[in-house]
Structures are given as C-alpha cells and as structure tokens.
Amino acid sequence: MAPNDSAETNGGTRGTAAGRRKAARYIVPVAVAGVAAATIGLVPALASSGDPDLPKISAQELIEKIAASDAEQLSGTVKITTDLGIPSLGGLAESFAPGGAGGAGGKGGSSADPQERMTELASGTHTLRVAADGPDKQRLSILDNTSEYSLIRKGDQVWAYDSKSDEAYHATEDRAGKDAGKDAGKKSGHPVPEGVPTTPKALAEQVLEAAGPTTSVTVDGTAQVAGRDAYKLVVKPKQSGSTIGSVTVAVDAENGVPLKFTLLPSSGGKAIVDAGFTKVDFSKPDASSFTFTPPKGTEVTEADDAKAQHEADKGLGDLIPGAEGLGAGDQGAKNTKVIGEGWNAIAEITTPGSTGLPSKASGDVPAEAQQFLDALGDKVTGKFGSGTVFKTRLVNALMTDDGKVYVGAVTKDALVQAANNAS
Which CATH number goes with the domain that contains 24? Predict the structure, then answer.
C-alpha cells in the first residue's frame, strides 16, 4: 500500500457557460447542467478487486507520472454514471430528446449530430467503447441495448452515425485552424465537440489543471481497475462552501494513464460522476476501427447544412432571454467577472438589458417549462433583492430578478453571499 503523501499544485480558475438551441431558451436550469458537463466532463462505478502492493510514491511524483504519460494507443470499454440530481423533464423530455420535436432529430436536425448526442452523457449510466491511435485517430461509441451511436475521427474527417435512426453526420476539420489553437470545424462553421472528456484521463487532466493553493492532493493507497494495478490520487478542496467533496483518480502504476475517476459531493451520498474502464488494452487498435462508410440508404447531414440549426458558442444567449452575446468575445468578457478563487470561484454574469427570469404569468413560459423551473429552483432574498437558485448536485446558479446570474460549484448560501457582497 502506498502511504499518504500530499502536494500542492499551481493552476487557475476557469468558468464556462455554453448556449444551446432556441427551443431551450426557457429552460434556464439546463444551462447549469451544461456548465456541469463542460466542467467535469462525463464518466462510472467500477468495483476494485484487491489492493496491490506497489512501491511508495508521493502525490507530486504521481501527478508528474500522469503528465508524462505518452500512451497514445488504447482500446477498451468505459462505464459512465452521472447523477447531477436534476429532476425529470416529464412532458418536456419528448420535445428535447434526440428525435423529438425540439431535439436533434426534429425538423432540420440530425439525431447523429455530436453537438446534441454528447449531452446524453450528462445523466444516467452509459457504456462506451473507446479506441485511439495517436491524436488524429479516435473512435467513441455509446452502446444501447439494441443500437449504437459512434463518433469517428480520422485525420480531418469526422463522422457520426446513429444506427437506431440510420442517420449520419459528416464534418471536415480545418487542420490549420486547429494547429493555430482555433476551434475545430472552422470550414463547416459548426464546431465539432473536440476534447469532450469521456475518459478518466480527460477528466483527471481538467481537475489537475484547475488545482491550486486551495487544493489538497494526496496518495491514498492502491486499487486494481480493469485488471491493472493502480495508485489512488485524492484531490480535495481546502475551502468550505464548495459542492465538491473530493475527486479520486485511479492511476495506472505502469504507464500513468488514469483508469478511473470518481467525484463525490460535499453533501455526502453517491458519486456525482463515477467513471472508469472495465476493460482496457494499450496495444495498437485495428485500423478498421477508424474507417466509416455510410450504409446504403443512410440519411447524411453535412455540417454546412446543419449550421442553421446551431449557433457558435454564445454563453447563455439562448437560455436566458436578453443574454445574447454573453461569452461571445469581448462583449462576453465585459458582462462576466469571477468572484473568489479556486473551488469557490463564482462567475457573475450581467445580462444585457438586465432581463430577469421569464414567468408563466407573463405568458413567456409554457406551463410544462414552468413546472420544471419550479421543481428545480428555490426562491431566495437578500441584500441584493430577490431571485431564484437553480440546483444540481454539482453546479448551482442564482438568477436575480434584476437580471444578474451567479454560477459556480458552490452551495446556495455561497451564491446568496456573493450576490449580497456585490450589491
């Protein structure tokens, strides 16, 4: 067993908010789920079988081992369980699910569109099959009982295929734009969701990048995951007020690849995100894993054709009326500031026109949407005035009646205090 060792890491704070389709403009809590997904990624419960006896290692050495990991070839099966504590959409589910009236498979959309399908991983339990052969060959498949959704990249070609609907989606990445650090999919005008954290490694990297002096990092024993010996790296906030209790990363003792990622809430209970390999192989995957030809009769949507159904990242523009332009270039920066640091960082967003939350009484919100909002939100008051806190088990958001939004992986009380201090 490896003894407890601790290390401090340096990093910064990041805040992310992504706008979605017009159909969702009244579902403000979906913005919270989107932030959660973008922040922690998405991945599952695996039982450890025995605690292997491994050489002693410090937390700093284990972090360096992760950073130095150069395993670019692998294939395996990943189970993902995500529980953000969001109530059921009820009658809205049909409208916003892929293939529903307002979903990706609705008028003008495609059920194979990656922008929509990757959000499925934000809730429930999913089984993924993954394969990678260097930075330009990757495949991710979401397995269902009777169908499969696959996202394949080979060079600058990206294909997605939904076997249930027999629909495919195709995009060509701008390699020059990518190499310059710009968004993928520039040629098509429709960003492909590159770097969606669907593996324990991607999740661990996001957490370690955000770690800083407000973070405790220790090694807490060993485990065996997917038949491989691993060290357990535990990351915890030093501050109180965060919704995050701890993050545990099982790191392959041989090659430094994270094999399992578990995020526990500070409030206790089951994991918010529990992700890991059930099977993993670090040999070169078969080349056929990265080739795709649409089956005869498949409906293919080109990224250019789908452009009208999606707008570039605009912050909360389609989710909060009057918030168009948030997160978009200089204007988004002017409308957003960060309060606090580390795990307690809160983004304060001022909506243009100081537009508050729409209501059923004003005629702006359908009855089903209002029911969903009421189930998710708590009315609060303070020095700032009044507003509504929308809750998940990870990210919470306070929207004041005068049109300000406070969002972060912090408790309701922390949001109210931040709003009071800003008044």
Answer: 2.50.20.10
